[in-house]
Every structure is written in structure tokens, then in C-alpha cells.
């Protein structure tokens, strides 16, 4: 980079301070490893800092830096010769859409009050973290892009260089797998299916 | 005025509705349905709350080692 003025540096520092925990959290969900997550965020911010003068609209910084993070992650995976479709080939087909809401409404559950809210209240943060991290990479990426960073389907498609329809189908499949994993964890923790350890009520 | 949607149609489009990916007319039709259908409204609220819980997992306090690395990047140039 040539030279960055003080106002631009102040802008960058303020934005990084605002976003650092989200960038690190996202990197952690993507890489599933603390050291790799740190490396990914440091690499992302080094690239963002070097290209900062290319950013014309400062309001777009948040999504811009997030896209650099995703592209850095994908590029690193390519270097390691791990391709998403190879990782997720088994998980990409077969099962029907899974809805946690519909499961909670199964009549065999003994409950009163609000079973949906009860389930959400009882799921631990770590349950949800591991459900996200269990997702095969291509699904995890789109779930993170849309649910954690609020990208539109078109923005996610542009970042991944795939058609919008692909984003839509991966997102549906990813959410279905995520809810399936949460349901399984709820069962294992005795939160559902009438388990004696204190099911959803 | 568009026709009223059936619950099956609303459920089918619910996630895209929450993602704000529907065209204006369909979006308004779902919003109108949700005003009068408790079952679909309840389901939409569940999905919203679940999404908020998933969203929380993307925020983790960055370790001091990372903060030091970021400062070093800035100071390097």
C-alpha cells in the first residue's frame, strides 16, 4: 500500500475494534480451531488494510471485510486441497427437510406451556456452536454468510461465485441439517422425546 | 389485492421471508397471513429466535494474542 492518511487509519482501527469479536467468532465457526481462526482473521485484516484505499463506500466495510475473510478461508482450503464438495458429498443428498419446530410439536411429547421456547431456552450455546461446526463446509459457509452476517442470497452467490439458486438450496439443506443436529443433541441431553432427564415442557 | 395464501404456501416461503428475499407483493402477502394465523406466526417467531441463537455463536471475544497481531499489522505499514 502506498500511504494511508491518519483519518483512514482511524476509520480502520475503529471498524476493526467494532468487528473483531464477530470476525474471530466467525473464523472459529469456519475453521473449528482457535489457532487457525486467529491466523484467518490476521490474514484477512492484513489484506483489508493493504486494500483499504480500494474501498470506495465506507458504509460497505463490514460486508467487504467479511467477504475477504470468506475468500481467504476458501483459498486456504484450496491450498490444502480440501474441496467443499469432497467434504460434504455424503451429506448433500438423501434426507428430507428437517424442521425442529415440527418435531417439538409431535404429539408424543409431554408438555404444557410453550415447548418451542422451552427448547430454545434449554439449548446451550455450545450445543448450537457444535451444530454449526458439524455442518459440511459448503453448507456451513452459506449458513454463516446469511445467518451470521446478513448477506443477501445474491451477495453470498457473488462471494462464492455460484448461482443464487445454489445458495438457496445449500442454505435450505444447511438449515435442515443444523436443526436435525440440534434435535439430536436435545434428545441426547434429555430435553426432548419424553426423556426422563427432563424433557421439553 | 393479491389472494390470501394458504399455510402450506407460507411455510414453504417462510425462511426466504425471514431472510427478506421475497418480492414486495409476496412479502406483504406473508405478513398479512401472519397477522391472522397464529400457527404460522408462532412458527415464524420460533425460526426468528433460533436464528438469533445461531447468530450469537458468531461472536466470540478475540484473544489478546490476536489483538496484538492486528496492532502489529497496522504498525508495519
Describe what you observe in this structure.
The complex is a heterodimer of chains A (201) and B (77). Chain A has 201 residues and is an all-alpha fold. Chain A has helices at residues 6-31, 34-50, 61-79, 84-87, 100-104, 115-122, 125-134, 137-148, 153-160, 164-188. Chain A folds into two domains: 6-82, Rna Polymerase Sigma Factor, Chain: A (Orthogonal Bundle); 88-188, Winged helix-like DNA-binding domain superfamily/Winged helix DNA-binding domain (Arc Repressor Mutant, subunit A). Chain A is built from ten helices and no strands. The radius of gyration of chain A is 20 Å and the shape is elongated. Chain B has 77 residues and is mainly α. Chain B has four helices and no strands. The longest helix of chain B has 19 residues, at 38-56. The relative contact order of chain B is 0.12.
Measured between the Cα atoms of the first and last residue of chain B, the distance is: 59 Å
Residue fraction in strands of chain A: under 5%
Number of strands of chain A: 0
Biggest interface, chains and residues, is: A-B, 48 and 32 residues
Q: What is the gyration radius of chain A calculated from CA atoms?
A: 20 Å
The percentage helix of chain A is 55-70%
- The number of domains of chain B is 1
Overall pLDDT of chain B: 92
Can you lay out the helices and strands and say which pair or pack?
The complex is a heterodimer of chains A (201) and B (77).
Chain A lengths: L5 H26 L2 H17 L10 H19 L4 H4 L12 H5 L10 H8 L2 H10 L2 H12 L4 H8 L3 H25 L13
Helix pairs in contact in A: 1-2, 1-3, 2-3, 7-10, 8-10, 9-10
Chain B lengths: L6 H12 L5 H13 L1 H19 L7 H13 L1
Helix pairs in contact in B: 1-3, 2-3
Considering the chains and any ligands shown, give keywords for the structure.
heterodimer, A: 201 residues, mainly alpha, Rna Polymerase Sigma Factor, Chain: A, Arc Repressor Mutant, subunit A, 2 domains, 67% helix, elongated, disordered C terminus, B: 77 residues, 4 helices, 74% helix, 0% strand
Amino acid at each position: 500500500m502506498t500511504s494511508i492518511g491518519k483519518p483512514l487509519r482511524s476509520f480502520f482501527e475503529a471498524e476493526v475494534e467494532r468487528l473483531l469479536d464477530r470476525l474471530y467468532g466467525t473464523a472459529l465457526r469456519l475453521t473449528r480451531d482457535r489457532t487457525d481462526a486467529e491466523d484467518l482473521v490476521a490474514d484477512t485484516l492484513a489484506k483489508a488494510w493493504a486494500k483499504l484505499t480500494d474501498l470506495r463506500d465506507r458504509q460497505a466495510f463490514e460486508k467487504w471485510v467479511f467477504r475477504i475473510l470468506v475468500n481467504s478461508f476458501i483459498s486456504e482450503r484450496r491450498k490444502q486441497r480440501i474441496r467443499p464438495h469432497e467434504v460434504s458429498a455424503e451429506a448433500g443428498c438423501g434426507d428430507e427437510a428437517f424442521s425442529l419446530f415440527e418435531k417439538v410439536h409431535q404429539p408424543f411429547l409431554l408438555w404444557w406451556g410453550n415447548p418451542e421456547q422451552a427448547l430454545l431456552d434449554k439449548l446451550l450455546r455450545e450445543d448450537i456452536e457444535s451444530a454449526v461446526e458439524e455442518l459440511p463446509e459448503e453448507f456451513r459457509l452459506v449458513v454463516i454468510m446469511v445467518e451470521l452476517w446478513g448477506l443477501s442470497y445474491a451477495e453470498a452467490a457473488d462471494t462464492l461465485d455460484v448461482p443464487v439458486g445454489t445458495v438457496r438450496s445449500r442454505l435450505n439443506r444447511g438449515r435442515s441439517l443444523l436443526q436435525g443436529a440440534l434435535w439430536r443433541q436435545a434428545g441426547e441431553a434429555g430435553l426432548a422425546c419424553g426423556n426422563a432427564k427432563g424433557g421439553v415442557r | 389485492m393479491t389472494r390470501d395464501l394458504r399455510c402450506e404456501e407460507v411455510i414453504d416461503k417462510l425462511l426466504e421471508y425471514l431472510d427478506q428475499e421475497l418480492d414486495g407483493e409476496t412479502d406483504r402477502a406473508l405478513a398479512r397471513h401472519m397477522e391472522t394465523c397464529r400457527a404460522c406466526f408462532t412458527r415464524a417467531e420460533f425460526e426468528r429466535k433460533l436464528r438469533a441463537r445461531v447468530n450469537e455463536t458468531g461472536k466470540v471475544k478475540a484473544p489478546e494474542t490476536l489483538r496484538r497481531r492486528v496492532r502489529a499489522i497496522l504498525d508495519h505499514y
